[in-house]
UniProtKB/TrEMBL annotation:
Domain FF span(s) in chain numbering: 11-76
CC annotations in GO: nucleus
UniProt keyword annotation of Thylakoid present: no
Name of the protein: FF domain-containing protein
Region Disordered, residue ranges: 81-116
Keyword ATP-binding assigned: no
Biased composition (Basic and acidic residues): 88-99
Extent of Polar residues compositional bias: 100-110
Annotated keywords: Repeat
GO molecular function terms listed in the Swiss-Prot or TrEMBL record: RNA polymerase binding; transcription coregulator activity
Lineage: superkingdom: Eukaryota
Matching InterPro entries: FF_domain (IPR002713), FF_domain_sf (IPR036517), TCRG1-like (IPR045148)
Organism of this sequence: Lithospermum erythrorhizon (Purple gromwell)
Length: 116
């Protein structure tokens, strides 16, 4: 049981190191660069693999797990980008609404002053 626990710990550590490698190499900036055939590290596992293979953390993870870990990593980045985009759009629309609302209050207060 003890050796099985140790083995599991080693696997988890290797997976964590591979995730760190993904975070270092597979970034939004890296996704902008396209290959001659239009592939990016976000759209093509084979393209991403070429960048990852040079690091020994790549070989420490089982072959069957690498692609799914990469895919989850890319999906997480895309999800975060979408959230940021949505938040920025919300802030812009709130800012527009806020300036319109403040003009209403200003014009309302002027009318009150005019009545006096």
């Amino acid at each position: 049981m003890d050796s099985q626990f140790t083995f599991s710990f080693v696997i988890q550590r290797c997976i964590q190191e591979f995730r760190t490698l993904l975070a270092e190499v597979i970034t939004a900036d890296a996704a902008i660069q396209e290959t001659k055939d239009g592939k990016t590290v976000f759209t093509s596992w084979s393209t991403a693999k070429k960048l990852l293979k040079v690091d020994n953390r790549y070989t420490k993870v089982l072959r069957k797990d690498r692609e799914s870990l990469w895919r989850r990593h890319v999906e997480d980045i895309q999800r975060r980008q979408k959230l940021v985009t949505n938040e920025n759009a919300e802030k812009q629309s709130d800012g527009r609404r806020g300036s319109v609302d403040s003009n209403r209050y200003l014009s309302g207060s002027m009318r009150t002053d005019d009545r006096r």
